[in-house]
Amino acid sequence: AWWDPDWKDSMVTWTFREVDRGTEVILSHSGLPGRKVREAHREGWGEYFLGPLKAYLEYHR
């Protein structure tokens, strides 16, 4: 598995903020155990979720 069963729960928070030309989406993921895990999750969120979401939303504007 890509996670350690000994990890404590973490928290994902989404913030949506109106900006001049649309909406800014801010993702915060707290409670991750250690720098390597945080960096891996940052990359994973971008590659597997935020990047595809951005592409989808731009295509369906």
Q: Which features would summarize this protein structure in a list?
A:
single chain; 61 residues; alpha+beta; two-stranded antiparallel sheet; 1 helix; 2 strands; elongated
Number of helices: 1
Order of helices and strands: EEH
For the record, give the distance between the C-alpha atoms at the N and C termini, rounded to a whole number: 37 Å
Percentage of residues in DSSP E strands: 25-35%
How many discrete structural domains? 1
- The strand order across the widest sheet is 1-2
Describe the global form. Answer: elongated
Largest sheet: 2 strands, antiparallel
Global structural class? alpha+beta
The quaternary state of the protein chains shown equals single chain
Low-confidence stretches: none
Round the Cα radius of gyration to an integer and report it.
Answer: 14 Å
Whole-number average pLDDT? 93
Number of strands: 2
> Level of helix content?
40-55%
Compact summary:
The chain has one helix at 35-59; strands at residues 11-19, 22-30.
